[in-house]
Design brief:
Length: 320
Amino acid sequence: MTAALSIKGMSKTFDVSAPWLNRVLEGRERQFVKAVSDVSFDVTEGSCFSIVGESGCGKSTVARLVTGLYRPTAGAVNFTDRDGRRLRVQMIFQDPHSSLNPRWRVGDIIAEPIHELQLRDSRAKTKQRVAELLEIVGLSAEDAVKFPHEFSGGQRQRISIARALASEPDLLVCDEPTSALDVSVQAQILNLMRRLQKELGLTYLFISHDLSVVRHMSDHIAVMYLGRIIEQAKVETLFQRPLHPYSKLLLDTIPDIHAPHRAKDSQAGEPPSPLNPPPGCAFHPRCPFANERCRHEEPDLLEHVQDVVVACHAVEEGRL
């Protein structure tokens, strides 16, 4: 299988220091946050690869690194097909209310990437393409003359998807595309995205904290914690038998109508500050299986069984 997207050793560090004068007067040192640390994965053509984790784990930073909104501090991002052609990448943002220009008509919003990339050679053809895209995402061609505020949240996200499709992308990076929507609308958007993937042969990099959404969309899942991938597996493999204690903690958050009061083995609590991460395994302060090795030695991401990689000393040593 050919990888549409290949990430190798990607890291991103942000300088979050106070202004120079404040540091001098207060005797403070510069501060850095390692938002993404040595992340590697491949996304197969036509598949959906999802990254999940709590807020602040670095998953949205990965999305912005892939789309070029951030430049990586280290590592490489490569998207080429089997013929060596550079694939076209677009992004669907989290909030459809703020990602659409309120002063532009919907037709102009969708037409902008067509104009910029010169995908059509006349205004008439561009207008026709805009009408096609609106109908593809379940809206009407007549909606092109309206403004974003005239639509509901779900309809605005359909407009965002139409705009992303306007550039004829091969890879769509979806940064929590349904989290700002009502639950009933979420299902409609997810079903639309699955249909478009099948009809257009799209590849998705899907970012979410909602495991129920991820299970519906994904072929493979990577679980992130404090900037690192700590487990990666096929979707059903991870849902049926998660290995890392943090993956189990995330799965425990999914409501189960058959066992609403089921016991939870993993401890909860808040993740540590990325400004001052704990030594060793970053999850050890919340992990019931942590020992001295976990507190002092950072685990490597190793293949445990076929197609399953996990970074956990307890899994490596068979203590789970």
